[in-house]
Structures
1.
Amino acid sequence: MSRWDLETVYVEKKDGVAWITINRPEQRNAMSPQVHFDMSTVLDELEFDDEVQVLVLTGAGKAWCGGQDLKLFFKELDNKPKERTKAYSASQYWRWHKLFTYPKPTIAMVNGYCFGGGFTQLIACDFAIAADDATFGLSEVNWGIIPGGFVSKALNECIGMRDIMVYAMTGEPFDAKEAARSRLITKAVPGDQLEAETQKLCDTLLQLNPAVLKATKEAVKNVRNMDDVPAFDFLGSKLLELQFVDKENGRAKGMDQFIQDKSYRPGLEPYKRSSTEA
Ligand code: ACO
């Protein structure tokens, strides 16, 4: 295992997985401008790190993310337009532009509190697994702001209007079971099984062809606002592109394993990558 420490974030790399931890436990991992700068650096770096195939995003201590830092991100930047612009740009860059279509699978491992602006990266991750005692909340309405940044838009990507209205317009906190019911998260698990459940999902993803995972994610996420004709065109092009960028040649070899060798059934298992390396 190797470890990389930044001022507000640390990364542990182990067996193909980068465990990224926002490390401001005393402030409940509230996002200061420095968190945004550090997370931007981390995501840019790990994108090209061949040792890393899957990313897990979590928080130190009892919070996953306490939202934007009300003091350092909001109040102290009120009269500093240049610093505010830099912090806002970094904040949107890593939490949505980068993370939503990150070229590797991403998992939010929600260990505790998740509030306000933290919803953006929660929704941007491909999967979200939460400890059943984690607490979620859109607290903005309690103190005179809206779920801004990108939160209101991101919510519409993954849950229905009835649930958004309850969360955003009452500001009342809710638990992981409720978050799973509304599909804000993938699933809730007992707290003492959170890491093991996350590792299990990592193991599944690690067995799969990374080029195919990347293309699948781009396909699903990029067509969501397209009309039918451009969507057909985009998906057709993606499929063709995959045959050129997939170094494992998974399509041809997977078909051989099924049709000729009869050594696997694609409906039930991944094809055997070890025997397909170019
Ligand atoms: N911004 C700045 N500081 C924060 C934040 C935050 N979002 N969240 C927690 N902190 C700080 C507290 O000020 C406190 O600092 P101090 O020790 O210097 O007094 C420290 O973290 C611990 O906070 P407590 O409230 O004592 O911790 P507790 O475990 O009792 O409660 C909780 C945690 C529920 C997360 C609470 O701190 C809270 O309600 N925080 C605000 C959450 C929120 O509304 N976030 C949305 C922000 S708006 C947005 O993101 C767009």
Note: Residues 26-28, 30, 63, 66-71, 113, 115-117, 139-140 surround acetyl coenzyme *A (CB under 6 Å).
2.
Amino acid sequence: MQIIDGKKISQEIKDELKAKVEMMKANGDKIPCLAVIQVGNDPASSVYVGNKKKACEYIGIGSKSYELPEETSQDELLSLIDALNNDDEITGILVQLPVPKHIDEDTIIRRISPNKDVDGFHPMSVGALLIGEDGFLSCTPAGVIQLLKRSGVEIAGKECVVIGRSNIVGKPMSVLLLRENGTVTICHSRTKNLKEVCKRADILVVAIGKPKMITSEYVKEGACVIDVGIHRMENGKLCGDVDFEDVAEHCSFITPVPGGVGPMTIAMLMNNCLKNI
Ligand code: NDP
């Protein structure tokens, strides 16, 4: 059994991107600049935003942060997005989700110019993914593909089961595995015989949002298990959607939580920031 080291792989990717930016600087090319917008001061969001700014600094691209008060109106947020859409210095725009309840997430996502949609959530980006065109890929699922490829896990022809069909993880994950020629099954809360379906998987990707729900009863001997879930337990430690202790010995490959999929999301965001430049 091999534990897939997401920290190491994400560092490799960030170092590759850093080298790319150094080349761009040496050639006098335009250097990307990411605008990060946070509305309100949810502590988890503040940590994510801080990490994104640090990653920009590490790879050598610009970042501008916009910390708006909780009571910011939707119109004010839309006006800021419009201004950033029209600002040539800004090459990527990210609105940290979730936004406060009085702001409609979909309206915000659709307002970001598809050319600057580094989160890959705009319907244009999602559509491009579905029809196999080049575009911004949703960062977490794109990170999973990198984990698999860089660990030498073959996807083509394999039975891939994804648990979860959210717009940010499950759906794009399934399409990316299909793009890599996997045979893909998508499971959700209405799936019958979940255990049996999961037991067919050579590659099982779990994005279910339920701490430690996936035990060895769901896993075929020798499968590769990717755990997208992240939860903080009562003792303060993090865990995933997979019961790691129970499942690990039955796998060929498995991602830990923390240190698996989590660090890949920011690495792939940085990758998106260097796209189309
Ligand atoms: P959602 O809650 O949006 O989606 C969960 C999905 O799981 C839904 O499609 C739901 O089905 C399905 N589901 C829920 N319960 C069951 C069940 N008992 N049996 C089968 N399917 C079930 O979550 P997200 O996709 O946003 O996130 C999933 C997990 O990944 C979370 O733990 C989240 O914290 C984590 N995450 C981690 C990231 C990272 O960077 N590592 C990034 C994003 C998310 P239905 O559609 O029918 O309701």
Note: The chain has a mean pLDDT of 97.
